[in-house]
From TrEMBL:
<keyword id="KW-0274">FAD</keyword>
<dbReference type="InterPro" id="IPR050641">
    <property type="entry name" value="RIFMO-like"/>
</dbReference>
<keyword id="KW-0285">Flavoprotein</keyword>
<dbReference type="Pfam" id="PF01494">
    <property type="entry name" value="FAD_binding_3"/>
</dbReference>
<dbReference type="GO" id="GO:0016709">
    <property type="term" value="F:oxidoreductase activity, acting on paired donors, with incorporation or reduction of molecular oxygen, NAD(P)H as one donor, and incorporation of one atom of oxygen"/>
</dbReference>
<dbReference type="Pfam" id="PF21274">
    <property type="entry name" value="Rng_hyd_C"/>
</dbReference>
<dbReference type="InterPro" id="IPR002938">
    <property type="entry name" value="FAD-bd"/>
</dbReference>
<feature type="domain" description="FAD-binding">
    <location>
        <begin position="6"/>
        <end position="348"/>
    </location>
</feature>
<protein>
    <submittedName>
        <fullName>FAD-dependent oxidoreductase</fullName>
    </submittedName>
</protein>
<dbReference type="GO" id="GO:0071949">
    <property type="term" value="F:FAD binding"/>
</dbReference>
<dbReference type="InterPro" id="IPR036188">
    <property type="entry name" value="FAD/NAD-bd_sf"/>
</dbReference>
Length: 485
């Protein structure tokens, strides 16, 4: 076996692993990405970037490239297929960006390559051993087995994560009761009533019976649609089994009858409403992110986004630890902050599946809930959950409206004119917005990092506030004068 060395091994080259590798490389950390598959599948899979994910990509100057690969913007989200708007949120991106997961992965991998980091494909993680100083990762390629020693290992290798299983971390939850089938289909004749462009979550899907549901989402290419079909009361014997094209055609016929004809089925897969979350996201020098840490029914379009946001939270913390700028106390905050967020997503997904109409009573409940969701306050609350805009991290000992909240990226006033704050985050630094350079040393001590960008502003949007320090992932972590509870 060969013995190589690196700072961090990332297992898995999905959106979570690629985003994490990007963050680490940006901070000057040596990272190796191991991917079991020999090449990208090209399957569309997830279809959206939520508003908070768009804000985070904007912090790194990556959003424009994603927009170029997108096929639409969707002006609302949904909760159990009940549309909810983003109107109540202060964001520059009050929409979902329609973009296939395959395009997200291709774009992130291209950006990673510009940083000098490549994905090692056809590299299947077999096992690992950690001690107090390092992790030894054994993986298999066509050339045989290799052992790679690193300071840390992060499992971003999906719901059946080898890394999570190797940690022997509990993965509690529910197996689920029902299933869904998803396929990309090219119609010769589009079903009556189907949207021609995906601009809203209205009329893209709904119940077809007491336990069954269906949906059609146009994917930008003429005649190409995402078809979703499922039954909450029926679970196949093997949820991992391949879906035949005949099964898809039968489901289409059952859903739309002869009003639609299909010329091609690009791909098809099954999913279940199982929900599980790892008990811990960190064990020593091994961490979990994305689907390796949590799985759930794809309600609300949250899965890919939850993983990318895991990566943004972990990336700067892990980089600071590797570079010696911070210790275990900072790295421990990854689990402390993201585990509750993951738990909340599983909770809201369970609530969404509970609103699927399967009886007279549940249909009545759904109707009442839909009326409530139309209220601005309720719509804001629900959209904040599924979009990530409502995330606010806990702070202790102080109280200030900025602390723990995300950067909204509205222009700030400087002597040179208005400035968009997101432009200051492109290098992955802490960012200090301050009315006086006198606060820089205190902010640097709070950040515990040499990577600090200071921007003088003529005013801040909070009264009696002279400076606000933002973490690299865009959440405020310090203000001055320091308030007390």
């Amino acid at each position: 076996m060969n013995n190589l060395g690196t700072d961090v091994v990332v297992a898995g080259a999905g959106p979570t692993g690629l985003m994490l590798a990007h963050e680490l490389a940006l901070a000057g950390v040596d990272v190796v990405v191991l991917e079991r598959l020999p090449e990208r599948t090209g399957l569309s899979k997830a279809l959206n970037l939520q508003p908070r994910t768009a804000e985070m990509l904007e912090l790194r100057g990556l959003l424009h490239g994603a927009e170029e690969r997108s096929f639409t913007t969707v002006q609302d989200g949904h909760f159990a297929m009940i549309p909810v708007g983003y109107d109540g949120w202060d964001t520059r991106f009050p929409f979902q960006l329609g973009i296939p997961q395959a395009q997200v992965e291709a774009y992130l991998e291209e950006q990673l390559a510009t940083q000098g980091t490549k994905v090692l494909r056809g590299a299947e993680v077999i096992d690992f051993v950690q001690d107090k100083d390092s992790v030894s990762v054994r993986y298999r390629t066509n050339g045989g087995e290799t052992r790679l020693r690193a300071k840390f290992l992060v499992g971003c290798d999906g719901g059946r994560s080898v890394v999570r299983k190797g940690l022997d971390v509990d993965f509690p939850g529910v197996n689920g009761e029902g299933f869904g089938m998803v396929a990309d289909v090219l119609f010769d004749k589009i079903p009556d009533g189907a949207q021609k462009q995906w601009r809203t979550m209205r009329n893209v899907g709904g119940a077809t019976g007491d336990t069954t549901f269906k949906g059609l989402i146009p994917l930008g290419e003429p005649g190409l649609y995402r078809f979703v079909y499922g039954d909450r009361a029926s679970r196949p014997a093997d949820i991992r089994s391949a879906v035949s094209h005949d099964e898809v055609r039968r489901a289409l016929l059952e859903s739309y009858g002869d009003s639609a004809t299909v010329s091609e089925i690009r791909w098809a897969s099954q999913f279940s409403d199982a929900a599980r979350q790892a008990e811990h996201y960190r064990v020593g020098r091994v961490l979990l992110a994305g689907d390796a840490a949590h799985i759930h029914f794809p309600a609300g379009g949250q899965g890919l986004n939850l993983g990318v946001q895991d990566a943004m939270n972990l990336g700067w913390k892990l980089a600071a630890t590797v570079r010696g700028w911070a210790g275990d106390d900072l790295l421990d905050t990854y689990e402390a902050e993201r585990h509750p967020v993951g738990a909340q997503v599983l909770h809201n997904v369970a609530a969404q599946t509970g609103l699927i109409p399967r009886s007279h009573e549940s249909r009545a409940l759904r109707a009442v809930f839909a009326d409530l969701a139309a209220l601005p306050e309720v719509s804001r609350h629900l959209s904040g959950m599924v979009s990530g805009l409502g995330i606010r991290y806990a702070t202790y000992g102080t109280s200030h409206p900025a602390l723990g909240s995300r950067l909204t990226d509205q222009d700030v006033a400087t002597e040179a004119g208005p400035l968009r704050p997101s432009t200051l985050f492109h290098n992955g630094d802490f960012v200090l917005l301050t009315t006086s350079p006198a606060h820089t040393d205190a902010a640097r001590a709070q950040a515990r990092s040499p990577r600090l960008t200071t921007q003088l502003v003529t005013s801040l949007p909070w009264p009696s506030t002279d400076a606000v320090l933002y973490r690299p992932d865009g959440y405020a972590c310090w203000v001055t004068p320091t308030p007390t509870r």
